[in-house]
Amino acid sequence: MKNRTRAAALAKSAAVLLTATLALTACGGTGASTETAQGGVLRIGTTTDVVQFAPLNNVSISDQYIMNQLYPDLFTLEIDGTLSPHLAESYTVSDDGMVIDIVLSDEFSWSDGEPITADDVKFTLDRFVSDKLLHGITIASNLASAEVTSPTELSVTMKSASYGWAQDLARSMKVLPMHVFADVPNLAEYPIDAHEDAWVSGGSFTLTGITKGQSYTFERNEGYPLSADGNEAVEGVEFRIYPDLNTMQLALQSGDLDLAAPSIPSSAVTSLASQPNIEVVETTEALNYSKLTFNASSAPLDDVVVRQVISGLIDTDAILTSVLQDRGTHPVGPVLPVYTDYQPDIEEWSFTADEARTMMTDAGYTDADGDDYFDGIDLKLLCDQGNANHAKSAQIVRDNLATAGITVSLACSERATSLAAAKTGDFDLYIHKLNQINSPATSLALQYSSANTSGLYYNYVVDAEMDSLIATAAAATTEADNIADTQAAAAYIHENAYVLPLYVEALSNAYNSSRFTGYLPSGSETFSMVNPYSLSQVVPAT
After folding, report:
1. Any idea where the domains of the chain sit in the sequence?
2. Tell me: the pLDDT tens digits for 299-326?
3. Which residues form the Solute-binding protein family domain (predicted)?
C-alpha cells in the first residue's frame, strides 16, 4: 500500500530544500535596491523558440519550459526525487499491485473557470494511448483502463502489476483539459499556437501571447490554489528568447531579466555569483546523467574485457574537476545517486595503464609493430560538440585510453548529426546525457532493454540475461522486490561494462534578486525553477 498526504509531503519538501541546495550569493558589493520591490511582470530567459506546440508531445527541455506551464502535474517532483501532492492529494496502490486509486484536490480550476476533475485525468490517460503522446509513452504501455468514481477520484488499472509503473504514473503524469480538447481527433497533430482558444491552463499562469523569436507572455490563473501570500504581486510572466547563454547572463546582471530558465554552465557559476544582486542556487542531487555508452555490437567492444579495461582507465575524478569544477557527483553504477535504496553493491572499475595493457594482452590483443598502440583498434567517439562539457570529457577519455595503447578518434559534431549517428549505431563510444524522472526500474528499461521501445538503447546487442533482469524489475509488485530486482539488473549492467557513468551535473539556476525571490529549485532540468509551482511561490523582494 502506498499513501501520501499533502501535509506530510510538503513538510518533507521543506527539509530537503534546506539540506540539498546551496545558495551562492553575490559578495562583490551590496548592489541591492534600497526600495521595496513592488512586483510586476516576471521576466524569464530562455534560448530557443518552442518547436513542438502539440500538448504533451514535446521532449525538448526548452519547449517544456513553456508548455509545462499549462498542464498541471499530479504531484510535484522534489529535489531528492520524492513526490509531494499537487493536483493530486494522494495515490494508493492495491494489495495485488494492479490498481492505483488517485484522489485529487477539489481546489484546482482551469484558467477559463472550469474545475479540474477526474474526468480530465481519465481523458489524458486515454489520449496517451490513442494519440501516442510522447509524455505518455511509459504510461500507455501498461495502461488497461481508467474509471472515474467521483469528481475527485479515479481508479487506474494496469495490464500487469508493476510497482515501478505506479511510480512512473505518479512522477510523470500531467493533465489536459477535456473540455478544450475532446473534439480534437489527434492531439499529436494539434499545435496550440494556431488555436488561441486552446490556451487554457491548470498551472499558476496561462498563455496570452506568442511572438516567435522574441517572447511568450502569460497572465495569472486565478484558479490555481497554491500561490504563496504575496504572489499576487506577480502580475504576469514573460519568457524572453536570447540568442545564447552569455547574452542571457548579461541581461540577468543588468536587471533586464529576473530569472534564467536553463542551468548555468559550471564554468560561469563563480563569476556570475559574484555579481551584485545575482544568486545562484545549486541542486547537487540532480536527475541528470552523463555517460559513456559502449556499442557492443562489434569488435572490439563486443569483448567485455575491453569494455571493462576502458571503464577502468577513464579518470572520472579528473572530469569532475577539470570539466565541472567539482560541481557534480560521480555515480558508480547506472542508477542515479539520489536513489540511495536502489544502489547495487558494486565497486568502481579502476586500472593503471600497465594493468590495462596486461589485460588486453592476455585477452589476445597485440602490438605487432611496436608503436605502443594495440593493432586494429581505433574507436570512434561520438558526442554533441554543442555541449561543451561533453566535448571536454571526450578529450579526457581519448587521452586516458591512449596511455594504455587504445586509439580513439573524436567524432563530435552538432547535435542533430551526432544524434543521427547514434540512432544508426555509427559509433563505438558515445558520450550523451539523459534526464530521468522515471522510477529507477523504468529508467533501466528505457536505456538498456534491447526491445528499445524508447529509442534510447545504444548498446546495440541482445543480452538475454540483461533483458530478463530488467523485465523482472519492471514486473515487481512490492517496493522491496522492486528495489532488490533493480539492484540486480544494475549490478549486471555494471559488471558487463555496458556503460560508464561519467557524472551527475549539479543544476545551477541563477536569478536577479532585486525584484523577486522565492523560487524553488528542482532536480530535473525540465522542471528547473520555472515549473508552475515554483512560479506560484515567487514574491517581491524586500
Report:
1. 6-23+44-190, 288-505
2. 999 999 999 999 999 999 999 999 999 9
3. 83-452
